Amino acid sequence: SPPPDSLEKAIERLASASAVCQLLNIEISSKALHYRDGVLSARPIIASLLSEHSLAYLLGSRLFIDSGQHQVKLYPDELLPFLAARRLASLVKSPEDARRLLANFTWRSTTGECGVYRPLLALAGWLAVFCTHCRRELLVIEPQAVAFFGDLRNPHLPLTEASDALERTIKRLVEEGDSLGRSYYTLTAENYWQAAKPGIESILVALFEKYGSDWHAKDALLNIAGHARLDVFRDTVLDSHGRDYGKLLDDQLDMGYILALGRRDDLLALGAALRDRPEIPESRVARLLAELAWKALDARAISEITAAQFRRGRGGFTTNWVLTRSV
Q1: 166-198 pLDDT, tens per residue?
Q2: pTM score of the predicted model
Q3: Measuring CA to CA, which residue among 105, 100, 132 is closest to residue 121?
Q4: DSSP assignment of 69-119, as one string?
């Protein structure tokens, strides 16, 4: 087998070319010495690193899956921006290098707005982790890439810069109408969890006090705290509903945060409120059943709540789905 160092360099080269060119499929045919539209040819990129046998070994490994005739792609998908950023970060030795590199991934409008092209947000996020020079540029150009698409919990990333990234991101959501993921990425639980760097709680509270009246800012902040199980907003959220869990059921965002915290007293109170509020939307009933079953609701309570939904003439599709798959 080829030396591990050569394999690592080859993988990172392929990943960086695939990510930057936005060509996910990689040609592995021995005859593919030329470029074809829509396909990345592996041989011209890594021929200097690996022999024909080693290339076949690499592209046949578990890091790749078949994606077409004589074609593969990196798997899982999350590996692509991570490995690409490692390769590109190794080429940056100065702030000027960072500016020149990022100029290929960013846009600027005549009115002053700027950002990273949305398909490259994940790549930019990992660049912010691996390269200090890139991170300092991205804090100004595209703070959400730093805050949500890399790893704020990385011990080499200072708390001050993590806080700055989060502050700038939330400010853009409110004042510039920005959106997380730019309708290209849907943020996952991991995106939100990693943004809750230990020590950032005071920044979360300050941002909530300043921007909590904006739905998009509130959604982002509650998701960060909820996925990290931080109860920093619990009292504020409950107080906004007069500590009435029945009223809490009317606010899906607040209810989701309280559910995410997983406190037994909250779950029991939500279960009691659900039994008293059969008229809330069925989708919300189904979500509560999935979260509260066997924790705050026993078999009898589950059956009574389900029966109440059918008595109200509802189709019961989401309720049935939850009962047969989650409960």
Answers
A1: 999 999 999 999 999 999 999 999 999 999 999
A2: 0.91
A3: 105
A4: TTEEEESSTTHHHHHHHHHHHTT--SHHHHHHHHTTTEEE-TTS-EEE-GG
